[in-house]
Specification:
Blueprint lengths: L2 H6 L49 E5 L10 H5 L5 E5 L3 E5 L5 E2 L4 E4 L8 E5 L9 E4 L2 E6 L2 E3 L13 E4 L2 E6 L2 E3 L4 E6 L3 E6 L2 E3 L7 E7 L6 E5 L2 E3 L7 E2 L6 E5 L2 E3 L4 E6 L6 E5 L2 E3 L9 E6 L8 E5 L2 E3 L3 E3 L1 H4 L17 H11 L7 H12 L30 H6 L20 H14 L1
Parallel strand pairs: 1-2, 2-5, 3-6, 4-7, 5-8, 6-9, 7-10, 8-11, 9-12, 10-13, 11-14, 12-15, 13-16, 14-17, 15-18, 17-20, 18-21, 19-22, 20-23, 21-24, 22-25, 23-26, 24-27, 25-28
Amino acid sequence: MSTFLCFAMLHACSNGPAGDAEGQFTFEGTLPVVETSANAFPGALGFGAISKGGAEGEIIQVTTLADDGPGSYRACVTADMPRVCVFRVEGVIRFTGRPPIISSPYLTIAGQTAPGDGITLAHSGAPHGRTPLVIKGTHDVVVRNIRVRLDRPGGAREAEDGITIENSRRVMIDHVSVSGARDENINGFADNDAVSITNSIFSYGVPRHDKCALLGSDPVGPQNFSFISNLCAHNGDRNPDVNFPPGSCIEVLNNVFYNAQSEFAEVWEGAGGTPVSLIGNSFVAGPDTRRATIGIANERIASTGPASVFLHDNAFLGEFTQVAPATRERLVGDPPCPLTTEPRSSHEAMLDVLANAGAMPRDPIDRQVVGEVHARGGRIGRWPKMLAQGRGERPYPDEDLDGMDDVWELAHGADTGVSDPWGDADGDGISNLSAFLAHRDAELAR
């Protein structure tokens, strides 16, 4: 039987019994779901889907891989206006100075517009080697189809996440790929709200602080946070870490967590007791996973109130402690709050994540990590530091600089001689640019 087929059947073929593959904790009722408006893009999921991003704003062309200056990524993301960054170049944008901080609202980074192998963000190492993608003190930001690869050590580990979201709201992170962080691959800090992290790959954290995702760190007040359809692979713990105050709504849905060493998911109580639903996830042992590894942990260090943990249809593949005794004491019979979407089964979600998560087209790093999940191979700390430099592919023609391919515009009734990204040529209620970006998504996923 092939490894892929084993995963499709939720059987752990090579590393011990599957355990409670269909989920020891199964809810018999109807999961409460409250639909949210998908302003960010058609099909956006989670609390962050309400983000407006750069809708109705300026289309800014990124025409150079240089760190700074006209046509640079930095110039676009730091501009003070509603805007959409579209890319006329492919390859690595390596920040030679301190990476830019996104602090001006109403921004969409449309990485799927780049030709060839797409866009990778990286820094140049110490002393300016800091988190390449920081969203701080702002709102309505959408980031899609960007890679962040930390291939050189920065000046300080604690300043070197892959992505940090700090004191921001209405943020949508979708189809990104991050690896090589010396702190968390992705980190939410302080007073965020209405945040979604979806369809992404977070891999190969750097020991001895190899962490996938710290969703809530030092929260000020209640937050709504969604972590949906992501792959965490080769990160020792924080797969993910949740620590939020009462009144929050945290949903961890349909993810694949692979090869944790000490812990997979961690539910903390330092902020007063996290209310969290973990539904339809797959916790998969790898070469670094031990029998003492914990699938869903409850951390009570400096606890200020009990967590509320709802579990349903989570698959545990391999030999490890699936649910810690402390976690069992915090289980609740119903989701602490309504979900934003109807979850898929853990079986369906695994197939979807392994086929579709991450920035597209997949680079060698993502192809390797997904292959290692299929084969139950690979190790923490061992990743190929190969960055996609580009294939020299030309960008699509865009005579009127509105971000859309002229060929696509002609086929869909838009005007190639007039900038009309926010028009609706076919009258379907979706802007021309949103429809075009969905077309690009489908092209890259082939």
